[in-house]
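Two records follow; treat each independently.
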Amino acid sequence: MATDTRVQRLETEVEVLARRVDRLEGRTATSSVAAPPPVPAQTPAPSPERLAPTPVPVGPPAPTWSAPAGAEPVSPAGSAGERGRARPTRQPARRRFAGFADGAGGRSLEDLLGGRVLAWVGGLAVLIGVAFLFAVAVSRGWIDEAARTLVAGAGSAALLALGVFLFEKRGRSDAALAAVATGVSALFVTITVAAQVYELLPAVLALAMAVGVASLATALAVRWESTGIAALGIVGGLMSPVLAGAPADLGTMAILLVAAASAVSVLLHQRWEWLAFAVLVVTVPQWVAYVFGDASPFGTLAVLTGFGAVGAAAAAGYEVRFPAERLRRSSAFLLGLNAVVLAAVGWLALEVQGAQTLGQAWLAGLAAVHIAIGLASRRSDRAAHDFGVLALVIGVVVADVAFALAVEGPARAIGFAGASVLFAALVRRRGLPAEDGDLSTAGLGVHVTLGLMQVLMSDAPPELLEGGGLPAAGAAASLLAVTSGCFVSARLAEAGHGALRNALDALGLALLAYFTALLLDDVTLVLAWSVQAVALARLGRIGSDPVAAWGGRAHVVLALFVTVAHVVTPTDILLGHGGQLLQGTLALGAVALAALACARLADRRERETRAVLEGLALLSTVGLLALVFDGALLVVALAALVVALAEAARLTQDRACVVAALASLGMALAHALKVEAPPSALVQGLADPAAAAVALLAVALGAAVLARSGRWERWWREGVGGLAAFVALYLASVLVVTPFGSGEATALGLRQEGQVLLSALWSVAGVAALVVGLRRDLKVLRLGALALLLGTVGKVFLYDLATLTSIYRVVSFVALGLLLLLAGFVWERMRPDPVPDMREVPEGVR
């Protein structure tokens, strides 16, 4: 028996030395360095006092240091499952009884139930029994408080000592681990009840005893690497105030904090990530109940600080002690959840207690701590880079919340704008990792958004646009701060961040337009936006800045919208200015000039954009003319605009001027045919011959000038010239019919003479145009003449034959027939012979 004991002690010492060497050299259980093959364990001589241990079979040498095949590695802390990882050293063999091993040499179900489950269930039952002991003793009055506390404490200490003795001296069994864990938990329960329920121990002594038990449990858990000690010992100690029904006061929180710190120390030493979550789940409800109970503000701060430090140490310490390339999800979740709970509970609890200032200070301190953790982690080579980034993000978020709660009104918007500038400076820094740059960009966007929300939802909401008058100083300060923040941030972050700069500039321009709308109304607002549009277009042209260019165009659209919605409506333009002549003239003129300037300053490659802007300028100009003039004067004004655009087209050779002139000419002709000389005048005559003559002559003159301007395609110049001739013929036609279409002429039966003269006019004009077209070889003029003659034939056969009396029919048909004969003769005499097809000419004649 003595030999067996010495062998086991030697094996234990060798194992401890191997572990220490591993820690010094940084080796892990999965090291790929080959190690010497394990030395087979010698079977000791049988001893009459006890059964001999089962020999451990030894496998062939392997490239990595591992346990022999068929043997279960056992550490001083228990089984391999309890240790959580394998060791590269040979473990002492555990003695087994026959029938406990399965066919492969591993543990059977019988071995698992009998050796481990029974032991741990027994320990849990003892712990519950201790709790019931206090309940029964109190209810039946068996023993007084001091006696029952001494009995419980002595029994718990004895159980703990027995477990330590069995584990160290008698084979490291699961039953010994269960006894130790149960003893530790029972001691925590006893100390809590004695100090908080029975008040037998002063708070200082109870705290010292709790520290001692926690330290002992921590030392044993680390020495034996036992998850059981941590589960039933440390976590059980965390549950002791709940199990004992201790009051939620500061003394209980101090004991709970010591137990939590012990759990975290075990976590950091043994890599038991689950223990951190157990600490959080078990302790948070207890200290939350305390701070929302009868706690004072300073007691609340003390509890928040203590448990917050434990939670942060659990997350940060694990990352520093066991560094990795990437941030572990468990650490990230733990740090984030700890910060959220501390911020929310701390602020709400102090708010309920009437200590708003302390609540704000608590949030500020919490933010500062996380920012400090982030900066320290970034400078350390041990912690993952992502961990420092996460801590900084949490610190900034909490700082934003603290700032928003501490200040109100414009100061809040100014603060967020300043923070956006700081983040823009970080974005500007060169050499930052891609993740940091993206994070800084996100921070910039978030703070700009926060400032914008403060402005639009609190300081300067859109409802101010309806009230009129100047905005308050606070609203102006908020808007100017956020607007300036956008522009400054855009300038700082422009290098390599074109999209970000464009977005910030666009937002700044939108806020500038909004601020202008709050300051000014109606005409003054239109004038201001028009000036801003030209300035932005100029900046866009000089600096090749698309945001400035498009900002100017957006200002033009806004100015036009305000003009037609608030200054002078389309109804006022069409039916009369309604007393808004001066304001409408100024607004429409400003919009027209701004749109034209933006079109001229736009890039020549932006043809569609230029066309749209020129169309807006033309539309505004036409609206201005319609507002100022009426009747024939409006047609004259439009014709003058056609002449001006035609001259501009001749000088600049710009097709856009030609298109604008054609559009203006079309509007002038439409107005003349609708108001001054409608088609019904061909039968009834003109109501106002002078106005019609002025309008139609202006249209014909404008068309003639336009036809002669520029070196454009021949077909459209001929078409515009034909339009001028058509308008002149139409004027002559209505003037011929007018004397015979009045009421007196109708009463005298003279209307038929007018229709005969109209047919004769069309016939003569057709023949004359045909002669000119033949003499000058103008195909368009010849076709127009033929069309006019055919139209005259149609009128005579369809209208004159149906409406005229017999004598007038004779005159109409005879006159038309003679003129058509003359036209046919002229055509035959003056039409040049067609060019012969040379393919039909003989070879010798060609």
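The next record belongs to a different protein.
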Amino acid sequence: MDTWHFELLGGVRASTASVRVDDQVGKKPGALLALLALSPGRTRSREEVIDIIWPEVDFDEARNRFRQTLFVLRKQLEPAGVAPGSVLFTDRTQVGIAAGHTSDVGLFEQALRSAAMTTEPVVRAQHLRSALALYKGEFAPGFYLDILLTERERLNALAQSARERLAELEATQSTEVTLPAPVLPVPVRTENRFFGRQSELEHLQLLLEDFRLVTLLGPGGTGKTRLAQELQATTPSSHFISLSSLRNGTSIPDAIVSTLALPDSTDTALVRLRAAFAEKSALLILDNVEQLVTSGGAEAIASVLEAVPTLRLLATSRIRLDLPQESACQLSPLPKDDAVALFVDRARLAKSSFVLTDENEEAIAELCRRLDGLPLAIELAAARAAILTPQQILERLARRFDLLSDKRRDREERHTSLRAALDWGWSLLAPDVQRFFTQLCIFRGSFSLEAAEAITGEFLAIDYLQSLADGSFLVAEGERFRLLETLREYGLEKLSKDDSDTLTQKHADYFIDWTAERKLLLNGAQFAEILALFKQEQDNFIAALDRTLISDAKRAVVLCLNVARFWNFSYWLHPALSYLQQALAATERAEIPAEQVALLHSNLGLAYESLQMDYLSARTHYQKYYDFKQGQLKEREAAGDDDATLFPIRRALAGTVHNLGTSYWFAKDLDAAQRHYNEARILNTAIGNDAWRAFNLCGLYLVAWTRGYSAEDPEEQAIYFEQALRYVQEGEAICREVQQDFYLCYMLCGLARLYPLLNQQERGLPALKEGFEIACALEHRVYVVDFLYFYYCQALHDKRFEEATQFWGAAAGYAKQWDIVVPHEDRHLRPQVNLTELLGQERYDLLYEAGFHASLESLQTLAARIHTSHETQRLAY
């Protein structure tokens, strides 16, 4: 059996020689692991553990959550082939990590005990170094159970004491000339706990092993100074020099000498530094270099490196130094869990009774997201917890720059408010770049170089984007760029009303043209590629609609119609209904062409049908569009227009007839549905519109399947199911010919459903596999859930009851997440099996819960097991 080693300092991880479990194990399983792995071989009572982790939850519910959490943890620590209980010991009353496994906490404390027991200074120093090497960060960061917080404080105190004792020993043992202890400034309240950034800290340490100059980059408020101080606290022979009050870069060597309090001398600062570090290597941390780069600061730093070969330098800055020997490290915003942890900790300083609860957790997470994970912004927001709830703070973020300020005297001026922090970096940008940045703020989310060039009209856009990226004002993401929301709002404040109005029009016009060029490609072989492009721009669509619906109804209607086609394919129906309703209302305030008004009715019909199941309203809107197009067709035919000119009108009529058929199918009027689907098929056949003809066949399949499902006589059922199968097979062939994956997914779903109904289970497996893969790739949500249900039925048929339970949980989980209807228990498809009786209630609940929270990637792996099993059986026979 492999021995597990649990790393709890700087993260919560576990590993053997062949397996590694990282922080992604989850919050509650991670908390349970941290609690138990503190002392391998020691058990705790189940009731004690439940009370620690779920103190505010009803006991029966807490016990159920404990069982689910235990199941998730056991899957990680005791995978298939590992004896149950060999790692995670449980019985009716106790739970713990079995003896024989190790933890870094145990080894850390053992090294400290060894140091305390020896009388040899050199040996004691060795033990202390071993202990500090194990202390890679706070105990169980990101977990806030009271017992874990207490343990974190205890271990932190032990580590600090070890550092102090080691420093005393090294000072006593050393015969080298030592520097006087520098008086370090404290720009940020370093007595506060440090959160996250463990990977960044380790990355900086690695970079400093290979490079003598590392620049830590990031916009104002990302925590560069705080991370640099944490690096200084954990790095021997390191010194922190704040340059925030310096105004001339050529004075950097003098500032270093002054901060280190080197003995007075008539020699230059470089000579004094060379003498001080002649036989001693050290790390100098230069904080806030950005305002000095253009006034000789970069050259001064280069001169220090050249004059003192034993020094390494870490510079914190918002812009690069552009020195040949420089290695840059971009500091990103805090990830969600660390951001929430920081907020909770700082909120407790403002209000000692503040706790993270199920009720406020969502608001805190959204608050941190809206603040872009910027530590300064989060700290300033948390300070408001003294008088406001997290939800109240969230509701006031529209005035974030007024809300997020702190007048305490222990902060430097640039850290007293979010605006002051951003003003500091803004002042370093050239006027042309400042103007360019404010224009970019019209974008929401990410944007392309082409969009930036088109809307700003700036010939030097690529150079200005580079300057902004170097100055940490935007982030490059592959071929796209993104502004943090906080920086975007800062830039918008600086736009005049005239400039804002002009940019609003340019932004809307660009995306009107962009969507018009691409929306028709959603019908062809480029469907997946075009859909992905639409998803990249969806934040910009919404931003343009939000603005134009207020000020420019004509542009709003055109853009809304262009984007509606994307919404129909991507299941963005909630915003679709709202924006289509607003656009239709806007037609009363402006002269909008009748064609566009009619198209709004057509799209509203689909939104009402799909989102609200309001088939009467849907049919009313469809009919208005149909009547308009029918009148238009008669008018154009009378005018003698040729078939090519009439094609779009006829295609629109065929599509509307199909949509009317679907509204009747949902309303269970199968005769009317079949009549409309057949009429639509005839119309599409006449004009050669093959892709939509396949869709009509899908409608006819649904009617036949519904009739078969409702029939009581087995022979009658078979007739309808076979009829449905023929429709699906014909539609599948068309979809493959025209390379239309979106509609092909419909057909494969039909095959996966129909073959089992016709007792041809094996023939349905290829369609099940391919359909699920396409549905996942296209994020075709309704069909992802349908295929998960089919896998549930298939697993039941195969007597793979544990996999069946997970698929059923997954279908329910994704249906809830995406707000769609979970498939009902199909009496024709589902074998009559009682899973709770077969598995037991506890086992069933654990498996169902695992499926409910499973990722699509893990579910695809689970599905692959079904197919592998069938292929193995096929080859065996």
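Discussion point: Residues 146-173 form the longest helix (28 residues). How would you locate this feature using only the token line?
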